[in-house]
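Chapter review: from sequence to fold.
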Amino acid sequence: MSNTLCRHKLSLRGPRLAALQGRLQSAALVSRGSLMMEMVVAVMVYTLVGSAVLAGLSATYISGARSRDQSVAESLGRSQMEYVFSLPYQDPVSTYPSIAPPPGYGVSALAEEYLSSIATIEKVVVTVSHDGSDILVLETLRTKE
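The token string follows.
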């Protein structure tokens, strides 16, 4: 076995060794830019994945804010409607007093004419706004007792 090993060592000397070194050098030259290309591709993949994750987080945040605004608006609308029904009847067209909304929100309650032939029924319209835009409108009918 030691003779075989020695023969291989001896056989790699000279022209065979030079040929092997030449092939290794040419392989190294051919693959010289491949590591950089792999790095560029890896950075691009991580950038795309990171962008997708950030877009998902942003959409979740916006959706949560809208849900919160809608929930607050519904609660304000119900509270205003209950407050209107606790007040005495006002002939249409008139405005009922508003409850105190949290900062950034606005609430209004209007009494509108429902049918001109029946003066004892009015349509109450409660509008809830947030930052100047209407986000909820509730309507109901109220009769004069």
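Two observations follow directly from the output. Residues 1-32 form one domain. The two ends are 116 Å apart (CA to CA).
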